[in-house]
Amino acid sequence: MLAALVAFVAAGATALHALDAPLHAGPPPAGVTDPLPSARPPSTLAFSVLQTGVSGGAAEALLVGRGRWTEHRRPSQSAVLIRHPHGVMLYDSGLGRQVDAQFAVNDRFHRHAFRYERSGFLPALDQLERAGWHPELVRFIVPSHLHWDHVSGLPDFPDAQVWVTPEEREHAQRGQPPAFLKSQFDGVRHWRDLRFDGPPRLGFSASHDVFGDGSVVLLPLAGHTAGQVGLWLRLPSGRSYLFTGDVTWTIEGVQQAADRSWLLRRLLPLDHDERSNQAAILHLHHIMKHHPDITIVPAHDENVLKTLPSFPALQG
User: How many Cα atoms are found within 13 Å in the side-chain-facing hemisphere of 309?
Assistant: First the structure.
């Protein structure tokens, strides 16, 4: 019986391995291989990561196709602070002060599947106040998308503008738990429609230059949600980062052109448009290949985030 059980498990693992084959990369999208456009980041531009919690975790093989079953990953829930002479902004807001009440609307299954832990981390607002930063300094917040673990902190910054594409806002308004928790964004007082009104960048058809100097550029990454947004940050030091939301949960997904595991995608409704999200994975894969100086940062990859400055430290 033991031999039969081992054989059954081995056969299942082999089948899943085949189902989780990497995506076919093909040629890069037009424009990906072009020289990078110039940027003029101001000397005082800097950024930092505010980690606000961690997920309950799962085997890496569930989070990314052909990942390791023996490696337990603890995805991070964070906000990214960018200090520019023309204003302070957040990309995502992490888990906020009211996350427990917000999350309680989920049923038992989803409370377990998407469980989180503070693990000693504070909400972004508390971290800022401890460091002597007034909340009013945060002029606007650009959520990568409106899923619950990216916008829980929006109510903590009631005076900030929230930049979202019309498609994303409509998607969220029609959405339901566990992905979208309306208590997190129904009270937003200052919405701003995000329009990609700038030229093509990195092979994307359009862009939006936040400050007009090429240092902070927003890019369309729809697929995981209807209007997910990426952020390309170029620092005065010459370092460059591309924050990619939830296109993949791990950097391995970009490196290997691999989606989340087939099994998890069958168990949970993870993407608004799976094919579009897979196209975004391939796009990022080509950017990594042709522009190795750009550090790609999936929102939840705890290993990548450990290499970035942790608030109150700033890197410019």
Answer: 14
